[in-house]
Amino acid sequence: MKGSFSWLVSELSRPKDASILAFTRIAFGILMAIDIPQERGMNHADIKYGEDSGLVCKFPLFHNLHPLSQDWMTFLYTVLFLSAIGIAVGFMYRLNCALFTSIYWYFFFLDKTTWNNHSYLYGLLAFLFLVTDAHRYASIDGLLRKSLQNTHVPQWNYVLFRFQIFLVYFYAGLKKTDLDWLSGYSMGRLSRHWVFDPMRLFMSEAMMDLVVVHIGGFLLDISAGFLLFFDKTRWIGFIFCSSFHFMNSQMFNIGMFPYAMLATMFIFCHSNSFKTFVGKLPCGFNMLSLSPAKLNSNCIYEKISKPSWKHYVAAVLTILYITEQLFLPYSHSITKGYNGWTEGPYGYSWDMMVHSFQNQHIKISYKDKEGKEGFIKPGAFLKSRRSRWSAHPDMTIQYACCLKYQLVKMGIENPSIYIDVWKSLNSRFQQRMYNPNVDLANYKWSPFTHPNFTLPVLSELSNWRQKLKELKKLHRNETQNIVFVADFPGMHLENFVQEDFGNTTISVLRGKVLVEVDSGRNVSLSVGETLKVPPGVFHKVHTISNITSCYFYVYINSTDVSLNDKLNSYAKEQTVTPVPDPLQKSTAVNEDPFIVELNQQQEARKIVQHGSKYRPFAQRAARFMHKKFMTFRRSFLLSYYSCRNLIFGKPNTEQLATEREYLDLWLTMSNSSRPSEHSQDQRNAKREL
């Protein structure tokens, strides 16, 4: 055993060229510098951490973890950005890695609603750069310290990175063995994207969704790590991974993740590959050293050096890291408090895209100490309208506690909070996630105890999905919508039908329900029976059978139907006797001005959409670069203002207001909400009750 471990230590400490590790370092630093003003949120730090942030509910991993003031948070973003640049150029490498890693994880732990797998991966890679010697080639540190320049690194440096990237692919493939994924229910309608256009010649959209997206995605993830690992198959892995990540970069708004995965796949190449590539560049571009790497005391050289205590420590820590990463994605049997319909918080399980939620309805109510009931608008005291909190029991508890705190501040003593969340998982029926009769604000939650207020996914109804798809095709059109609902015995759904939906019906597919209308009229419905629901009033649907009830609503918007009929009639008249200029207002007396104006708006929208779709590449590129310039410009302005405020103090109120207006001018087009609107929402929070 001792001999085997010594052999392992020697193998992990075997010398390797540092050039391909340096390439990965440079690419990571550049991509993170691009990512920080965008996906990390530096360009809207004033919105997220502004003066009104005390009125906003937060979702940190640790309850006693809080953000600093706006100026300090923006300053941390600045340090994070500069440290990413430092990592890329290899200047004060270890210090910049330590700064980047600590600040990055601080931001990461602050807000669970923004967690995703690639953000988690960035943090892991930052930690790996911290503990490895990626600055021993192509770095400023190497120019300043000749003992570092072009020296070997121990093999465990490469083992850690290769293992981590291999695990991302392989575990993503293992998670895709889920029956929902292999059956094609996780990612719907992706085949409509233009990246699949070449496949339309020989495949239908349904076939592409199943075979290419789901089965193909599973096969690629489960095999990519192996293809990249072996020399003879690496070129195949490069082709498939490059195609896969290029398509992802176009289909999903996931920042630098596709490019980070493209850059890190080269870590599987021979350790001197980057040096070989640089040597083939034309004279003048190969400024880096091309000579063989020099000796490094951190490595073990055969017949020259023997293992020391630091080699054994490095080997043990490498094994511990690998073990921890193998175990963590399957550790949910320990951290039961985070388990709902999915296991654990979204982010570190590598279950990318396996679970797709469709939000239908969230109802939040409260009762004061006297039992008086009130209602809270979903999204109250939240700057973001994202509802990810509602899919995880731990964040739902945090939100309920925050709402209780806000209500107490408003003078409501000892309130109880009840949250009723309706969602559909992977095209199933809409169903409630949590027991609406449990007071979540006073619930004793523990990370190691399963939350008993969560309700299970009605997986026994999964085989209904094909029939639901057929019913959707039958009923859904421009003016008609259909919603499928499943509910537990003894529970009820309270629903309100708007006035426009004058022809709304409810039909039962399974079980038995009792429909209670405000007028006091109760109607019992069994399988196959249908009832027209009156608009403009609340009604309740009680499940009175001993089994789960399944029913569906068909909503017909009578206002839209009438409007579409008038628009179609007007369009036909214009086809027979066309107006010379479709954007010019008609002067006909017998025409409805509203219909004429609406038709003109539709025609103008078509022209704009056509121009946007067929805009020349140069214009699209210029528009893209302009948006990025605005993002970075605003980030740097925020950085300048925060550093000035911390060093010299804040200026007077008038100057701050002027600077705020100037910052608003640089808000990117992707930020649909202005900071002032967010502030106004929080100042008027009482209106949301």
UniProtKB/TrEMBL annotation:
Pfam families from the UniProt entry: HTTM, VKGC_lumenal_dom
InterPro entries per UniProt: HTTM-like, HTTM_dom, RmlC_Cupin_sf, VKG_COase, VKGC_lumenal_dom
Organism superkingdom: Eukaryota
Compartments where located: Endoplasmic reticulum membrane
One Gene Ontology MF term: gamma-glutamyl carboxylase activity
Species whose genome carries this gene: Ciona intestinalis (Transparent sea squirt)
Residue ranges of every copy of the HTTM-like domain listed in the record: 13-273
EC numbers on record: 4.1.1.90
Classification lineage: Eukaryota, Metazoa, Chordata, Tunicata, Ascidiacea
Class of this enzyme: lyase
GO cellular component, one term: endoplasmic reticulum membrane
Membrane-topology annotation of the record: Multi-pass membrane protein
Reactions that this protein is recorded to catalyse: 4-carboxy-L-glutamyl-[protein] + 2,3-epoxyphylloquinone + H2O + H(+) = phylloquinol + L-glutamyl-[protein] + CO2 + O2
The protein's name: Vitamin K-dependent gamma-carboxylase
